[in-house]
Amino acid sequence: MRPFSPLYIPKVFFELLTSFPVTVLMLAGSVIFGSLLGFVLARAKISGGKISKILADAYIGVMRCTPPIVLLFIVYYGLPELLLSTAGIDINNVNKGVFVLVTYTLLYGATISEIMRSAYESVDKGQWEAAVSIGLSPFQAFYRIMLPQATAVALPNFCNLLINLMKDGALAFTIGLVDIMGRGSLIISRNFGAYALETYIALALIYWCLTLVIEKTFSVLEKSLLRGKRSLAE
Q1: CB neighbours of residue 152 within 10 Å
Q2: Can you tell me where the transmembrane regions are (predicted)?
Q3: How many CA atoms lie within 13 A of 63 on its CB side?
Q4: Per DSSP, which regions of the chain are E strands?
Q5: What angle do the packed helices 96-121 and 50-64 form, to 10 degrees?
Q6: Do residues 103 and 29 touch, judged by C-beta distance below 8 A?
């Protein structure tokens, strides 16, 4: 059995980083599109009609019960079949990153909607009414009074969601996407299984570093918002 080789870790670490932009792009795209979907769902639950609330609740419930890898395979294998049979559109040659974005947008849009809804409902609506009564427009009252407070409430949960999304995104290599996890799988295959432990340790280091960056960024944002709230109170 080949002995453990710590010196291989930094070597493979930098090779894995060549696919780091793909990981970041998938993460950023999923957050952006997931937030847009989440906003639509949250709005439907907060101020929509009875039917829209029922549909939003049903969608969120289904997504919460679906494992990420199951939804990824459904989208990857099912979406091309659906479009080909119904519209005659062949997307089998589309970049695999598109299927990853669709999957995590659908999945995390549901979670983001609940974060948005709970954060909005945590703010006293009397503040909005008071702001409108002194001459602010409804949009100004929302943007200047409600949104900063709701954002401060949502940030910790959004940080946790982003970290979970980053970890679940590692499953994308199962459909052939060459992100850092996919790159690691290729390296292990190239070495015929040798240096697998060192490769996975290097992968873990990258994910740990990315997690620390995310946590630190959100910590700074949260402190900044709290300082703003204290200055307004004074």
Answers
A1: 19
A2: 20-42, 54-77, 97-116, 200-221
A3: 24
A4: none
A5: 120
A6: no
Q: What's the pLDDT tens digit per position in 27-78?
A: 999 999 999 999 999 999 988 889 999 999 999 999 999 999 999 999 999 9
Token output for 118: 């709970």
Own/partner pairs for 55-61, CB < 8 Å, 24+ apart?
56/113, 59/110, 60/110, 60/113, 60/114
Exposed, middle or buried: residue 195 (CB in 10 Å: 0-12, 13-18, 19+)?
buried
Name the region of 193 (left: φ>0; alpha: ψ -120 to 50; beta: rest): left
Q: Six-digit token pair at 176?
A: 């052939």
**Amino acid at position 160, single letter:** N
| pLDDT tens digits along 174-201 | 999 999 999 999 999 999 888 999 999 9
Give the span between the Cα atoms of 224 and 218, in whole angstroms: 10
**What secondary structure letter does DSSP report for 4?**
P
Per the listing, tokens 């959004």 go with: 158
Could you give the domains of the chain? Answer: 8-233 (1.10.3720.10)
